[in-house]
């Protein structure tokens, strides 16, 4: 029997969105402070004899949190489809918050040697597993409360959480650095953003604990129609397996690389390639994020009227066509880097490289260019939660949408900083030629190619499923 989602009062929906979003913002905050502090973490937990190797190792530790996200989607998706949505994303919240707090307590390489990076890697694994279970739970929970004809609008608020979490992580880091000073921040102050997560964790746990189970899931549970084997039903059953592959190769793979290129890699590029100091780079990113964030909701709402596919594919095509030109523009407006401190030789005889810094950058046009990158993100990301929810039946929705989402975002998207930085280093190491001359842009080839493949596949295979009625006994749709 069909369940009428429109029976859910609007006030109740906003309560659900608030509780789901607060916890998800905190989890993204926890996840991204590690990446935002990559250059400092490289000096704390890895040997200082080879700065590039230390940075790449840190990015690898950052990336491992993404690589394990699909496994978290499998583990927690199964729990969510069998036990319940609420219980599962309470568990993921506790795991994420606890591991983030622990990172702030780990002694550095100088104190405990190789044990330091090993512990960091293990904690990043826990973070990744937890985040793999979080998104599917929060998205499914909100969608199963939302009216059918406004699902894109209401789920788009969950889509803002990753950007808001990134924004808060940058703001807390910069604020802490200004308060304690740059030298103290590099020595011990960087731990404060990690430790603060415990306060945020407690607050968000209290809010989430008061929630009830999703009405659709509770109805399915009462009627005995929940899946007894979500993994088999999601990946062995032919029709549902085809939908999982469609979601991955037609939507989330390209969406993932555009998200991480437009927001995270752009921030990383400003600091490591263009040599902007952290505060001006943070101002550029944060202003662009603030200006663009309302467009997540705009495009989510628009997708209720004109369809999800058209908006997602347009954003993906914009990413393919304009990403490299925008990064070229950022480079021109940054100006050439100058030497802030000269190269020196330390007491052990090792050469300490010169510190280069951009001091003739033009902030406003750089904000506009980063805003354009984030605008592409809002187009591909704003409607995608509603698209994924409507693609899969209730009994396996948590598992089925979580796995392709986290492969697309965790593997393809999350590896953008590591792969792109490695490609830039490879191109720069060439003796001469076109590749060496344009080495700083070579890393962008990876996300552009992935987004292009996804655009072509999605355009050909995706159908515009929208505003469908979600039912407790909903059959597998045919896309």
TrEMBL record:
The membrane topology of this protein is: Multi-pass membrane protein
The scientific name of the source species is Hymenobacter sedentarius
The Gene Ontology terms for molecular function here are: transmembrane transporter activity
Task: Please tell me whether the keyword Transport is annotated for this protein.
Answer: yes
Keywords in alphabetical order, please: Cell membrane, Membrane, Transmembrane, Transmembrane helix, Transport
GO CC terms for this protein? plasma membrane
- The answer to whether keyword Transmembrane helix applies is yes
The protein's location, in the record's own words, is:
Cell membrane
Q: Which InterPro entries match?
A: MFS_dom (IPR020846), MFS_sugar_transport-like (IPR005828), MFS_trans_sf (IPR036259), Sugar_transporter_CS (IPR005829)
Q: Which CDD domains match?
A: MFS_ShiA_like
Q: Where is the Major facilitator superfamily (MFS) profile domain?
A: 16-463
Give the transmembrane region(s). Answer: 28-46, 52-75, 87-106, 112-132, 153-176, 188-207, 243-267, 279-299, 311-330, 363-389, 410-428, 440-460
Q: What is this protein called?
A: MFS transporter
Pfam families per the UniProt record, alphabetical: Sugar_tr (PF00083)
């Amino acid at each position: 029997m069909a369940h009428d989602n429109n029976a859910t009062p609007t006030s109740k929906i906003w309560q659900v969105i608030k509780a789901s979003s607060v916890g998800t913002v905190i989890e993204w905050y926890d996840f991204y402070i590690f990446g935002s502090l990559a250059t400092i973490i490289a000096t704390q937990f890895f040997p200082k004899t080879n700065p590039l190797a230390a940075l790449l190792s840190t990015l690898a530790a950052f990336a491992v949190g993404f690589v394990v996200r699909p496994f978290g989607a499998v583990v927690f998706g199964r729990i969510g489809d069998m036990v319940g949505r609420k219980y599962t994303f309470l568990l993921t919240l506790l795991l994420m918050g606890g591991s983030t707090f622990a990172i702030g307590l780990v002694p550095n390489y100088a104190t405990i040697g190789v044990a330091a990076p090993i512990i960091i890697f293990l904690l990043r694994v826990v973070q990744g597993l937890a985040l793999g279970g979080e998104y599917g739970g929060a998205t499914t929970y909100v969608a199963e409360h939302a009216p059918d004809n406004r699902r894109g609008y209401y789920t788009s608020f969950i889509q803002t959480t990753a950007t808001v979490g990134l924004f808060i992580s940058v703001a807390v880091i910069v604020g802490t650095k200004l308060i304690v000073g740059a030298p103290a921040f590099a020595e011990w102050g960087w731990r404060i953003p990690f430790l603060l997560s415990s306060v945020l964790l407690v607050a968000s746990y209290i809010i989430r604990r008061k929630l009830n189970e999703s009405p659709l899931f509770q109805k399915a549970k009462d009627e005995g129609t929940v899946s007894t084997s979500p993994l088999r039903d999601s990946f062995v059953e032919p029709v549902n397996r085809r939908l999982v592959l469609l979601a991955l190769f037609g939507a989330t793979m390209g969406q993932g690389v555009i998200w991480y290129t437009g927001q995270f890699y752009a921030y990383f590029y400003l600091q490591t390639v263009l040599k902007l100091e952290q505060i001006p780079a943070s101002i550029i990113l944060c202003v662009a994020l603030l200006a663009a964030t309302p467009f997540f909701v705009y495009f989510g709402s628009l997708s209720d009227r004109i369809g999800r596919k058209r908006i997602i594919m347009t954003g993906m095509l914009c990413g393919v066509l304009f990403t490299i030109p925008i990064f070229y523009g950022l480079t021109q407006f940054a100006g050439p880097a100058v030497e802030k401190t000269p190269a020196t030789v330390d007491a052990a005889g090792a050469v300490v490289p010169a510190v280069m810094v951009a001091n003739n950058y033009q902030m406003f046009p750089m904000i506009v260019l980063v805003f354009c990158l984030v605008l592409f993100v809002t187009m591909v990301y704003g409607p995608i939660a509603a698209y994924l929810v409507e693609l899969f039946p209730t009994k396996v929705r948590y598992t089925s949408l979580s796995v392709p989402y986290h492969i697309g975002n965790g593997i393809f998207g999350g590896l953008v900083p590591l792969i792109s930085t490695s490609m830039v280093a490879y191109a720069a190491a060439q003796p001469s030629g076109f590749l060496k001359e344009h080495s700083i842009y070579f890393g962008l080839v990876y996300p552009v190619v992935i987004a292009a493949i996804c655009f072509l596949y999605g355009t050909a295979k995706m159908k515009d499923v929208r505003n469908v009625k979600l039912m407790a006994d909903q059959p597998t749709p045919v896309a």
